[in-house]
Structures are given as structure tokens and as C-alpha cells.
Amino acid sequence: MPDRPLRADARRNRERVLAAAQEAFAAEGISVPLDEIARRAGVGAGTVYRHFPTKEALFEAAMVDRVERMTSSAREALTAENAGDAFFDFLQHMVAGGGVKRDLADALGPQRANAYEGLARELQTAIGELLSRAQQAGAVRADIGLAELMTILKGFFVAVHIDNANSGLQERAFAVITDGLRLR
Predict the structure, then answer these.
(1) Mean of the pLDDT values across residues 138-152?
(2) Taking the C-alpha atoms of 45, 66, 161 and 150 in order, what is their torsion angle to the nearest 10 degrees?
(3) Mean pLDDT along residues 115-126
(4) Is pTM, for the whole model, over 0.85?
């Protein structure tokens, strides 16, 4: 029997749990208790378990949601008139919107054997299209390919996560990266 669509209140609760989980996992890692995620979401633990039977299932769903949202944002940026601005704005969105977390760095990584590998590939494809458009518009160096860009981004995300970089350091490091990508 196919899955029935969730009732509106159940869908809202699921979205609140996912948002709280993303925030909690980003701040505390996967060790955060499910009861704490339920508290942050404003729901009971039973609601969390109804939607996500294990913490691993919740983590995976949170990552899938994050990557889907990032991919949607990248695809939307592809419709922008100014390809260079769209590319750099999207990169800024990745950094500001949670890109400085190790879980997103893992999702961006090459050949991951996990549930979001296909989604990560879709995200990389959209980023590659943004890069190509920006290069064709003369806004980004032509000698940077998608593989180099993804390596640079992943390195940035991991470095600022490991070092617990403050926002000023993150901004300066990101500025160095974007300056290096720009066509002079």
C-alpha cells in the first residue's frame, strides 16, 4: 500500500523536527539526544520517533532536506540575469545558510556511499552549471573546474568547522576564496 500524504499538522511537526535536528546536529553533532531535538522542536519524543525511528534516520533525513534545499537554491540562481552575481551570491548563501558545517561538507564530497549521494550529485551538477555560466559571462576564472571548486568548498567547510572559526575569520577566508575565483 502506498504511503498516504501526511496530514497538515503532522507535516508541520515533521518540518519542525527536521529544522530542530539540523540546528542541533550542526551545534552538537550526532550525539545530541532525540529528547533534546523534540524539546527544541516543541513536540513530544513520540512525535520524533513516529517520523524517525532512529537518530540515524533523523540525521539522514535532515541531510537530505538540507541538500534538497541547497539544490533548489542553486537551480533558482541559474535563472538570474547576471550569472557572475548569481554564482557568488549562491556561494555566499551556502556559507551563510549552514555551509560551515561538517555534514554539508560530507554531502558535497565525492563518491559517498550513503542515502544522499544522488542528491549530492544533483547539487554538484547545479553548482557546475552556475560555475559554467559565470565563466562564460567572464566573472570567474576559466581554469577552475567543478572538481577544483568542490575541493575548495569542502576544504573551507571542514576547516572552519574543525577550527570553530568565528564569523570574522570565516568571512575573511571566504573573501580570499572568492577573490581567487574572480577573473581579473
Answers:
(1) 95
(2) 160
(3) 84
(4) no
